[in-house]
Amino acid sequence: MASEAEKTFHRFAAFGDTASTGAEINNKNFAKLCKDCNIMDGKLVTSNSVDIVFSKVKDKNARTITFQQFQEAMKELGQMRFKGKNPDEALQEIFKLMEGKEPATTGVTKPTTVGAVDRLTDTSKYTGSHKERFDESGKGKGLAGREETTENTGYVSGYKGAGTYDKKINK
Q1: pLDDT for res 109
Q2: Nearest 5°: CA angle at 32, between 98 and 63?
Q3: Residue 112 has what pLDDT?
Q4: Domain that includes residue 52, residue range
């Protein structure tokens, strides 16, 4: 059974990365986790110290850390954040901060559902030749609604004697 902290870890590890299994977390999401869970307080624990701790616990040329390494990182950050507590107590405090947290999506642009699109697709407001392209229900007529359709007969447009080739040969 995964602990609350581990569940939070997995949620953040997979955040914004569709290819991620959630087993390892990259530096960006690690920093986000620290920020969203209030582990980073801007005084004792800054974004700089979070980056340093991340670099310290990760393998030499790895870009991500496992949950095991994550716990080591949290021990270090716990020592910074909760000065005077022993590493395990500090770690528990950090894990308490993480409980039930999910990656925050504040400031993320949400798609608008109203506005221009409705006006653009409302065929009752069309004027001129455009309104001829839709039936009463507002459904498009497709090619049938267009006056100028091209004929692929092989003759150049504007050529008046189409279909007279055979007659010319037989003379």
Answers
A1: 59
A2: 110
A3: 56
A4: 4-98
Span 39-63, pLDDT tens digits: 888 888 888 999 999 999 999 889 9
Stretch 78-105: mean pLDDT: 84
What is the CATH classification number for the domain harbouring 32?
1.10.238.10
Please state the pTM of the whole predicted model.
0.57
Take residue 1 and report the two structure tokens written for it. 């059974």
Q: How far apart are CA 35 and CA 156, in angstroms?
A: 68
Say if residue 92 is in the same domain as residue 120: no
Apex CA 35: angle with CA 41 and CA 73, to 5°?
A: 85
Q: Are 3 and 99 in contact (CB under 8 A)?
A: no
Instruction: Establish if 130 belongs to a structural domain.
Output: yes
**Could you tell me which residues are beta bridge partners of residue 64?**
26
Q: Which of 48-57, 99-108, 137-146 has the lowest mean pLDDT?
A: 137-146
Q: Are residues 84 and 24 in the same domain?
A: yes
Q: How far is CA 144 from CA 133, 135, 147, in A?
A: 8, 11, 8
Which tokens in the block code for residue 71?
């716990």
Strands 24-26 and 64-66: antiparallel
Q: Would you state the pLDDT for residue 51?
A: 93
Six-digit token pair at 50?
């979070």
Structure tokens at 86: 């022993």
